[in-house]
Amino acid sequence: MSSPPPRLTLVLGGARSGKSAYAEALVTACPAPWLYLATAEIWDDEMAERVGQHRARRGEGWITRDAPLALAEAVATAPGPVLVDCLTLWLTNLILAEADIAAAAASLEAACAAAPGPVVLVSNEVGLGIVPDNALARRFRDEAGRLHQRMAALADRVVLTVAGLPLTVKPGAPA
Fold it and tell me: Which position among 21, 54, 69, 150 bears the catalytic label?
């Protein structure tokens, strides 16, 4: 992964599939500094531990900004290569805030299209499992599927990670 990523890459995968590490390697193929836009909100000790592990793995050269809701604005003001981790946590935040998801997704699309440097989006593929047993979980799964379709249509490259292996779903030429 020594060549820089295309303008927009969407990296999908399940839990612990290697998607974040793969996305980080894509971004670090560009000159530093690299912007990491974190969408997670830390609600408990377990989440704090997960965030700490991600930060420790990234190491030097990364600038981290929290963007739990204002993701489009954060992407729009990014000065160079940016990694968004992750869209599904952002979607969760939008649902809990009772935000207009379609409008937020449209704003993110516009910000990604106008970003000056490569943008790598990470998201959890949640549509491969069973149908959830409650309305909120079904809404989340459906909204995630729609968001992924929108971003995949805009993306130059889409990669699905499985067991640490990147599988290119939509190829794209490097920037």
Answer: 54
Q: What are phi and psi of 71, to 5 degrees?
A: -70, -45
- Residue in the structure block whose two tokens are 């409008």: 103
As a whole number of angstroms, the distance between CA 69 and CA 92 comes to: 10
Rounded CA separation 119/112 (Å) = 7
Rounded CA separation 72/59 (Å)? 25
Convert the pLDDT of each residue in 45-97 to its tens digit: 888 888 788 777 777 889 999 999 999 999 999 989 999 999 999 999 999 99
54 is catalytic: yes
Residue with tokens 């794209």: 172
Q: Name residue, tokens 């940016």.
A: 82
